[in-house]
Every structure is written in structure tokens, then in C-alpha cells.
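Data card: per-record layout.
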Amino acid sequence: MEYNPGDLIDLVKRPIVTEKATMLMELNQFTFDVDRKATKPMIKQAIELLFPVKVKAVNTHIPPRKRRRVGKFIGYKPGYKRAIITLVDGDPLRKVLFPDV
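The structure for this 101-residue chain is written out next.
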């Protein structure tokens, strides 16, 4: 199914650069925060639109919201959805995201 390219660009919010995400880069997997309403086919098409790569698989998860207290008031941090993108072997997304490395 084809989606509107203007809508797909807004699905991917930011790449994640943590120790675990950096270790996944060795396995040709990249982690992004995405819109909570995004589906796996939409995420795949958005990544292929934004970067010159071919996506092999998309895994997503929505972790539970964390509670935060400020004085006697209890609230929650905003929820998010994270996508782990597996690329076809040999696609150079690392050089696109991190050109200095």
C-alpha cells in the first residue's frame, strides 16, 4: 500500500544513540523513535523514502510510561514508540546518519 510521502516524513522523529543502539549498529540494525500511530509498513516506507537503503525488517515496541513525582503531585512521562530497523546487508545508513565516523 502506498502512503502520502508528506505524511511519511513526519513519522520518524529521531535516531536513538545509546549504548545498546550502538551495539545493534554492528548487526546492521538502527533504532528510531517514531510516531505512536505508525504501523510497520508505514515505518518501512518512511525509512526507504528518507534514506537510500532497503529495509529487511521492522520491529516495534511501546514501553510502559514512567511515573514521575514533583512534590506531592504524581504524573507520567510522555509515552513513545521505538522502531528497530534491520537493513539488507551492505546498505550504508551508518554513513548517512553519522558522516564523521
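Known properties of this structure: The chain is about 30% helix and 30% strand. The first helix runs from residue 5 to 9.

See the next section for split statistics.
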